[in-house]
Design brief:
This protein is of the alpha+beta class and 173 residues long. It folds into three domains: 47 residues, no CATH class; 85 residues, no CATH class; 34 residues, no CATH class. The termini are far apart.
């Protein structure tokens, strides 16, 4: 991969062109092509404990927008927020921080809808739920889920007016 990236770059291809041709992210291309990028990543990882998966998730969360926004919290701040028994904020299912592919950090109010990178707008979420949510607000996601469930014969009711809990009733069929 590295040799192919360097070869395409020497042919004058842009990072974006290379990422599209090889099916990798522009960050991967930059890792091999940008001067001192590998050393920067190594320094960053050693500074923030390279084995800490949550640290990497927080760094990704901060880097999600193209805006130059100061980092408003550290992974330690986020770890304090989620506590010793982390759960997906939408489903309530346990999150195992060692299983890095099973969770993400979600912008509760999506950046595309005016949200920011503050710790108040960051929550732990299952990866599959985050893919479904995309740039929807929680209310939009709940409405979509309700339509899917109702279309498949479920009766939906909300138990507590203060919470966004959805209860599955008896099937219509």
């Amino acid at each position: 991969m590295k040799t192919k990236i360097i070869e395409l770059r020497s042919e004058g291809k842009t990072y974006k062109d290379i990422s599209l041709l090889l099916g990798v992210s522009p960050t991967t291309v930059a890792y091999y092509c940008a001067p001192n990028r590998k050393e920067q990543v190594t320094r960053w990882c050693s500074k923030y404990n390279k084995n800490n998966r949550l640290c990497k998730k927080v760094a990704t969360f901060h880097g999600i927008t193209k805006q130059k926004v100061p980092k408003s919290f550290t992974y330690r701040d986020f770890l304090t927020k989620i506590g010793n028994d982390p759960k997906c904020y939408l489903t309530g299912t346990p999150i195992y921080l060692s299983d890095i592919k099973s969770y993400s950090i979600d912008h509760v109010i999506p950046v595309s809808r005016g949200g920011n990178n503050s710790i108040e707008n960051a929550e732990l979420i299952r990866t599959d739920v985050n893919k479904m949510k995309q740039d929807k607000t929680n209310e939009q996601l709940f409405e979509l889920c309700k339509l899917v469930l109702e279309n498949n014969g479920y009766l939906i009711s909300k138990q507590f007016p203060q919470q966004a809990d959805l209860t599955l009733g008896e099937s219509k069929t």
